[in-house]
Amino acid sequence: MEIERTIQPIIEKASKGFPVLLLTGMRQIGKSWVMEHLGRKNRLYISLDDIKARALAKTDPQRFIEENPPPVIIDEAQYAPELFTYIKIHSDKSKKNGLFWLTGSQKYQKRCQALSAQ
What we know:
Blueprint: H1 8-17, E1 20-25, H2 31-39, E2 44-47, H3 51-59, H4 61-67, E3 72-75, H5 83-94, E4 100-105, H6 107-117
Parallel strand pairs: 1-4, 2-3, 3-4
Helix pairs in contact: 3-4
């Protein structure tokens, strides 16, 4: 028996109103599970825990998006902040909602702060 998570309808509603959705929180609380569960029928799922996927996202973010087109879930997005500019560009051009679902742990804030300080 699957238990519906309280956040599920919020994710679905937000996805209809915005091109990018970012779900952050502590490790091991079910972020990846809920996103994968909700998107399993119509979204590609990519985890940046995968070293090859992470390397491509960091070194050639444009190609990463071309090879993993939306609608897509990018899990552990904090590992490749280089993607964020290209996600914004793609979203601005497309003008569609629900393109990118991202997850990240608390490390996300620290990595983005370090990136913006550069």
